[in-house]
Amino acid sequence: xxxxxxxxxxxxxxxxxxxxxxxxxxxxxxxxxxxxxxxxxxxxxxxxxxxxxxxxxxxxxxxxxxxxxxxxxxxxxxxxxxxxxxxxxxxxxxxxxxxxxxxxxxxxxxxxxxxxxxxxxxxxxxxxxxxxxxxxxxxxxxxxxxxxxxxxxxxxxxxxxxxxxxxxxxxxxxxxxxxxxxxxxxxxxxxxxxxxxxxxxxxxxxxxxxxxxxxxxxxxxxxxxxxxxxxxxxxxxxxxxxxxxxxxxxxxxxxxxxxxxxxxxxxxxxxxxxxxxxxxxxxxxxxxxxxxxxxxxxxxxxxxxxxxxxxxxxxxxxxxxxxxxxxxxxxxxxxxxxxxxxxxxxxxxxxxxxx
DNA sequence: CATATTTGACCTAG
DNA sequence: CTAGGTCAAATATG
Length: 355
Description:
Number of strands: 9
Radius of gyration: 19 Å
Largest sheet: 7 strands, mixed
Strand order of the largest sheet: 2-3-4-5-1-9-6
Number of domains: 1
Shape: extended
Helix content: 25-40%
Structural class: alpha+beta
Low-confidence stretches: 1-7, 61-107, 119-129, 194-355
Mean pLDDT: 52
């Protein structure tokens, strides 16, 4: 990866910069209310740009690519052709049902990671992310080499609806405002983001202990500028095709959980690009929960990781939503889209937002 | 009282 | 054996 880069780092940077510029243009367009054609065109360009950049990265296969933002996902997990989501965590289940197949891999389900920057206490955005699903914490573990413990959550409806989706929340030690959320399995429950007003968010405990007043409500008032993803970083680490790869990233948050607008956002994305075709299904599938933004040129991106990414499903995506602010920017290369981009699509005034 | 969280014990892959 | 992941009893919350 370091030695023979099939891509020139400059090209990569350029690609990303271009994306950034385009995003800015898009923002302007949005503000100016220009024709939707133009907007769509811009979106397409942006995606194309990032797609290229990601491809370069993927090809390089460097875990520690220049882009610090990219988090390498530990292992590839393939999703057994088995079900969409149910599969692994239920060790016990599997054990009961068919131990034999589980032999090696413990993880067989689609998995992707999301990086969520949640508020700095000053912004009071802690707990700003929710994905519209109801999660129940079932464990917490101190992980070697990390300052903060990792929390384990599973779908509240695990039992009632056999929804085996789970997620892990790990606070970054470097940037305490960043939470790395790793999802596993797809929601099969019918309680997507749409309905349920997100209960306690994962980090709830922290909010509890720290502050709660200045949290999300504040943002509502601040409305467009902070609320949340100011800078959206999308990092795709391991992608593998996987038809059932569930719903990749939900742009964190409760917000999405309660808004319908994401549809607009999605449709925009989808319309413009064939790129996202593969995901349409899941994207639109109710179960998957609507606001998932797929970033996946399917076939092209997968692989490269080099290891066992067979065909199954090795999907790990990382989304970073930064709400920090204007400058979090990242000189080098973090993919960062300016806030406005999202703002226009997401109303933050919906009640229950960020909760 | 029902449901969610906490937390130490337990299980398993590596 | 270790670290990560899960279970489940105890406890907290509404």
